[in-house]
Amino acid sequence: MTSGYKRVSGDAVEYEVFARKSRVDALHLVGSVVAPDDDLAMAYARATYDEERWCEMAIVRKEHVIELWQPGEA
Amino acid sequence: MIKSGELIESTNEMTPEYLRELKHTLIVSGDTELISAPAYYLAAKRAPSINAFMTGIAIIQDELAHAHIAYHILEELGEDQEKLIFSRDPKSFRYPYAFDVPLDSWTELVVANGFYDQAGFCLLGDIHDKCSYGPWKRGLNKVMLEENFHLRNGRTWMKRISAAGGAAKDELQRAVDWMFPLSVEWFGLPDSKKMHSTQLEYRLKGLTNDELRQWWLSTVVPFCEQIGVKVPSHKETRDGKDVWELDYPFPCEFDAEAKRWDFQQPITWDDVLGRWRARGPRNAEMVAMFQEEFHNFRKTHKRDS
């Protein structure tokens, strides 16, 4: 899986975007963005995934996610 | 795995043919969302109020996010997103021909929201429902929510313009007259001409072209009749089922410059495919709108470093 991306403005990495609509929901994956740094990744996440009034949103660098196993491997 | 309804999650689980077909379907989807941005923007500039303009801009922002979702999945499948968007020849973009015909007024923009976004809603709703590729199926959650809002904007305005009557209603009817058959064409060749669909076989979509076209007609025709706008289609009941019939030869001749259909002039599907491949009046201008700035930026950036 690729973690580094080339953009016209330079190198960029992928961030996973998590959000939830209300306090009773669990945080879940809503999508991802590719950005050169955390600040721009936050801006992209907020602008791209604006389909709900989320009560919480968080982003994680994809390379920081530690995979135990994937579908088909369990 | 596909037949049992399971989802494919990574390239390791795909055959080369599945990957090729998935990429092709994603390119059509990404290109369609992307091109709707300049097409809608050129018309949104004619908005009758600041509020209406802001709604137009919000819709464009949604469409760009939808394009981003499709192109990003392509990127994860090994394609270069910047090359796909900024370095392709305008004629090689794979979006429906309808977008190449200029939307020149706010009225035409809201009919596009009512007709084209409804077509997008049917096509993507089917993919959202049936698609065998997990990341795309989930990515479409957001897309479906937002397409619904675009559709509502189109319908609310069409109803308002029709109720206003007079010249406003005449303009609405003229827009519907050329945009309705273009949207009917959107769903592609009839099932009788298209014997085999790899997309259906791989469950990249669930409904055939004609089934999708019927779904679109079943939502658009009653709505238009309800607001007093004439459309060349009517309902028939066959074997206890509602079937929407077109009141003109399908396909038939279209003059893109004059935005006029000649219902007396039936043509062949080869003629239609030829028109689609040649692209329409606004293709190059719209693609240049997003490609030019990218290349300017790259030139400036190179000079600086």
How would you summarize this macromolecular structure in one to three sentences?
The complex is a heterodimer of chains A (74) and B (305). Chain A has 74 residues and is mainly beta.
Description of the molecule:
The complex is a heterodimer of chains A (74) and B (305). Chain A is 15% helix and 39% strand. Chain A is mainly β and 74 residues long. The two termini of chain A are 19 Å apart. In chain B, helix 1 runs antiparallel to helix 4 (106-130), helix 2 (50-76) runs antiparallel to helix 5 (134-164) and helix 4 packs antiparallel against helix 5. Chain B is globular and about 60 Å long. With 305 residues, chain B is mostly helical. The longest helix of chain B has 31 residues, at 134-164. Classes of the chains: A mainly beta (74), B mainly alpha (305). At the A-B interface, strand 1 and strand 3 of A face helix 2, helix 3, helix 5 and helix 10 of B.
Share of helix among residues of chain A?
10-25%
Question: In terms of per-residue confidence, which ranges of chain A show pLDDT below 50 for 5 or more consecutive residues?
Answer: none
The string of secondary-structure elements of chain A, in order, is EEEHE
Kindly report the oligomeric state of this protein: heterodimer
Shape of chain B: globular
Which strand-content bin applies to the residues of chain A? 35-45%
The interface involving the most residues is between:
A-B, 21 and 28 residues
CATH class annotation of chain B: Mainly Alpha
**Low-confidence parts of chain B lasting 5 or more residues at pLDDT below 50?**
none
Sheet bearing the most strands of chain A, described? Answer: 4 strands, antiparallel
* Integer average pLDDT of chain A: 90
Strand tally of chain B is: 4
Strand order of the largest sheet of chain B: 1-2
